[in-house]
Amino acid sequence: MTVATAAWPGAGPHDVLRRASALVPVLRERAAQAEQLRRVPSASVRDLRASGLIRIGNPDRFGGVGLDIDTAFAVSQELGRGCGSTAWCYAVWVTHNWWLGHFPEQCQEEYFADSPDTLSSSALNPANGTAEPVAGGFRVTGRWTFSSGVCAADWVMVACGAAPDDRRWLLLPRADCEVVDTWFASGLRGTGSNDVVVHDVFVPEHRTINPYRVGDGDRTGWELHKRASYGVPLRVFTEWALTAPVIGMAQGVVDEFTSRARRGGGSGRAADSSAPRLRLAEASAEVDTARTLHRADVRQILERAGGGGSFSPLERARYLRDASFIVSLCMRAVNRLYEASGARAMLDAEPIQRLHRDAHAASHHQALNWDTAAEQFGRLALGPNS
Fold first, then answer.
1. Domains, the chain, ranges and CATH?
2. 170-199, pLDDT tens digit by residue?
3. Can you tell me the distance from the alpha carbon of 101 to that of 380, in angstroms, rounded to the nearest whole number?
4. Pairwise CA distance, residues 33 & 185, whole Å
């Protein structure tokens, strides 16, 4: 079943970002509630769906709005200024809807059959899951951790198989999974990143992909949709979706620090002191640099993929290096301003402490680890004998 494209006549990236900006104050007001609930509030999920912002990731034939995934990344950055948890879940949901365009066509039809605003979560550490091959598909059993946004999800994606040739991402209806309430965390509390348990569930072959082949040997997404992002190997883009909301969180800290300083809050009356001004200048430059590098690399990836270009191992390592470095820049900015924010910044009522915790939590994601990315790039850049 194919649904109509969302009614956004002539909408471009700037129109979409205006919609996202309008949600920022609303999400900021609900951020404390998200922490208390340990999930994105239902009202925020409804607002994201009603805004059409979820559909940016959809293939056009399934309700997409004629824009590519780079616009969704920009929206994630904008939403992060208001609520880090909601922006993180938005990034997950919208990117998963883009991923679906890589799956076999039958899977895409099933996934979007009920709504173009379908949501899915994922848990992609394969260590504790098994997929036993059977006629027509796999019998799946296991327990997976860190499934962000699962509380609102309609579908869940899990990973099985240790070796790249055996790796499978398998898509299951949420009803086939048990969600275990385990998410008690210091940051990103509102993401509801709970455990997912599956007990001997059949998953048909057409609802699986090998992520190591998607966009390389498997060109299903490009053949079906002819969108530049579907010419990108899936694993080249994995980190960029998660990096985007971190930039938004860091910008939120810059915004809050600036606002408090203008009101006369913070340590040493920041508006009248040179030291906080210098901290603000350096931190805001770091966030601006992170945003610029993110935009430039994503544009370069899309342009190369749209022109039919390939990506060498060194280029892939460079993009991973850059994504992780963006997070490092954001963490420097967040830490610098939090340290200069005085004792009141520790209070639960102060947004700056929540954004500080959220950014730190995001930076611990395995895909954004600087040491791993830097070592991999250095090893390829210098050769095997370095």
1. 13-111 (1.10.540.10), 120-210 (2.40.110.10), 232-382 (1.20.140.10)
2. 999 999 999 999 999 999 999 999 999 999
3. 31
4. 15
